[in-house]
């Protein structure tokens, strides 16, 4: 838990600096590429977590992987190395993205469906999210065939489950109770 609090503190500091430098959007795209790279590469993740790999080696790898990164992003990496907190890089990047979205009044609506969403359905989902939360949102479509049909909508801490599998489970529970 203390690691996540520290990650939020670092993310707030970077967001503040990036906002002052009017580069918050560029740093946000850096943070998205950092989370994508770390989650997509087990080797990179293990290298960041390893106490055996020297900090200088970690820095050279990160600089070469993120060579087009903004100076605020590079300074974050330097600060995490200096404070021996580099394993938090992915958490800091995720926290930054979340804080940036909150600052912009935007959020991510996660929609789980059995088949990919069409553009028409995406528009309807965005309208529903705006109605529920009063904020704009980006739609992230997760495909899970096990829900059979319908959808599961998650926005922040709100979840609406309108999947066929959920309805079948409710029916099953009703029949087993009677």
TrEMBL record:
Topology of the protein relative to the lipid bilayer: Peripheral membrane protein
Gene responsible for this protein: atpH
Keyword Transport: yes
Primary role: F(1)F(0) ATP synthase produces ATP from ADP in the presence of a proton or sodium gradient. F-type ATPases consist of two structural domains, F(1) containing the extramembraneous catalytic core and F(0) containing the membrane proton channel, linked together by a central stalk and a peripheral stalk. During catalysis, ATP synthesis in the catalytic domain of F(1) is coupled via a rotary mechanism of the central stalk subunits to proton translocation.
Family to which this protein belongs: Belongs to the ATPase delta chain family.
Domain of life of the source: Bacteria
Organism this protein belongs to: Winogradskyella litoriviva
The protein's name in its UniProt record: ATP synthase subunit delta
SUPFAM superfamilies named among the record's database cross-references: N-terminal domain of the delta subunit of the F1F0-ATP synthase
rRNA-binding is among the record's keywords: no
Keywords assigned by UniProt, alphabetized: ATP synthesis, Cell membrane, CF(1), Hydrogen ion transport, Ion transport, Membrane, Transport
Location of this chain's protein in the cell: Cell membrane; Membrane
């Amino acid at each position: 838990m203390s690691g996540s609090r520290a990650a939020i503190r670092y993310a707030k500091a970077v967001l503040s600096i990036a906002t002052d430098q009017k580069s918050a959007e560029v740093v946000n795209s850096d943070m998205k590429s950092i989370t994508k790279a770390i989650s997509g590469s087990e080797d990179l993740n293990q290298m960041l977590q390893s106490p055996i790999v020297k900090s200088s080696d970690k820095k050279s790898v990160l600089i070469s992987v993120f060579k087009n990164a903004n100076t605020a992003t590079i300074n974050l990496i330097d600060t995490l190395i200096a404070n021996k907190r580099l394993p938090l890089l992915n958490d800091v990047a995720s926290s930054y993205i979340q804080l940036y979205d909150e600052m912009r009044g935007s959020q991510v609506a996660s929609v789980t469906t059995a088949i990919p969403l069409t553009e028409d359905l995406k528009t309807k989902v965005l309208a529903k999210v705006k109605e529920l939360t009063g904020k704009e949102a980006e739609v992230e479509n997760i495909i899970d065939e096990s829900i059979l049909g319908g959808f599961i909508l998650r926005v922040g801490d709100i979840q609406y489950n309108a999947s066929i599998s959920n309805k079948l489970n409710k029916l099953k529970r009703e029949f087993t109770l009677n």
